[in-house]
Amino acid sequence: MLLRLESVNVFYGPVQALHEVSIEVAAGEVVAVLGGNASGKSTTIKTVLQLVKPRDGRVLLDGEDLAGASTPDVIARGVASIPESRRLFAEMTVEENVLMGLYAQRRGLTRAQARARLDEAVAQFPRVRERLRQVAGTLSGGEQQMVAMARALIQRPRIIVIDEPSMGLSPAYVDIVYDLLFDWKRRGTTMLVVEQSANRSLALSDRAYVLQNGAIVMQGPSAGLARDPNIQSAYLGGMQ
Fold it and tell me: Coiled-coil stretches, from where to where (predicted)?
């Protein structure tokens, strides 16, 4: 198993955010984590990246416990992140933002190698390629999301963790982003996707977990969960 969370408990001060959460992602698999606001979805991503540390339980990458690892360590081991709200450097150019994905590997690459990786990463994103010299803060939300996706790809990651890929985007850009994610799936990219949009993420993923109040309340093959009326009514409040 490439990524495994085992009985993870996370606290923010006295408040428990995750309760005995166990999630597995195999190589080449797309796994979705669904839930409403304050369900623990983003905390799950932060725990994988070691931005927050579990009080109990373990996070394993290829069987190796990430306890004690810093976030740069996790990234260097092949975990890329596309965070909620993109988290770009608004005053830097698009090119500089994409190249930030190489930060953890920068000492092992020549300038020519970094340029080749940049060209490879933006090949799927014509809008990004056309705007490499443009300041990132002047882009639309959808264009910024593509920059964040290219920044993840440039790492040649083993797994990409994606937090709310549709948040804040116009319907047209949501379609574009999910078309790209489906293409990544066809290419065998391993992904852990955290999302409120149940229908889209269940269509994309192989398996899914449903979080409510920090605990997993449902899990299974995505096709089966998509047919379960409880997914929309009881657990996700009718979110599409």
Answer: none
Of 27, 38, 129, the residue nearest 78 (C-alpha): 27
Consecutive H or E run containing 95: helix 94-99
CATH no. of 1-78+158-240: 3.40.50.300
Task: Give, in order, the Cα–Cα distances in Å from 138 to each of 144, 148, 149, 192, 236.
Answer: 9, 14, 17, 29, 34
What CA–CA distance (Å, rounded) separates 100 from 98?
Answer: 5
Residue type, 29: E
Burial label for 68, CB within 10 Å (0-12, 13-18, 19+), is: exposed
Instruction: Report the amino acid identity of residue 2.
Output: L
**Domain extents in the chain:** 1-78+158-240, 90-156
User: 33-88, pLDDT tens digit by residue?
Assistant: 998 888 999 999 999 999 999 999 999 999 999 999 999 999 999 999 999 877 89
